Amino acid sequence: MTNTFSLTCAQCSGKIELQGSSPIVKCPYCGTELIILPDIARQILQNAALVCPICGQVDKLEKVSALVMKETGKTPSQLVKWLTLSEPDYHHVKMPDPPFPPRKKDAAAEAWFKELQGVYQNSMIIYERKRAANAHLRKQQEQRLTIWNELYYCDRDGCVCLPYERLFAEPQQTETFVNSQWDRRYNR
What we know:
Blueprint: E1 5-8, E2 15-18, E3 24-26, E4 33-35, H1 38-48, E5 61-63, H2 64-72, H3 76-79, H4 107-149, E6 152-154, E7 159-162, E8 167-169, H5 174-186
Antiparallel strand pairs: 1-2, 3-4, 5-6, 6-7, 7-8
Helix pairs in contact: 4-5
């Protein structure tokens, strides 16, 4: 199946079908040549490629994120726990407090202060590792949310899909589908 997209001729208002990626299109009615900028042609062809991978139609496709918001009035991240980005931390992270120098200047107090400084340095290492782990997990969740925001639902076939990639899954398998696509795109 070849995806086509109709344009209107600026000269005679006739319908022109855009096929392929040629920047020059000729009106079949009046012969006027139109030059389509590459970015616009790419966008038009991409929109023309927005079809369900099962039925090949566009009329019953709707973005999953729009459906969720329309049905519930809530944003997707409020509803889907495995995609939520609202959690402040995946691992509880609290910056350790530095030790205060002792008031007395004797050997025991100085030894105790040095020991506290060692504990503080170790605590800072753990803190930085947990912070880095949290940042890594947040990045992964943002990537998953990006994929989730690209999902469409076809009401005719009852499937969720990534139309530009011609991939689909059952709605019950949405989480697994998003995770597998994340793995395919980002976790190589």
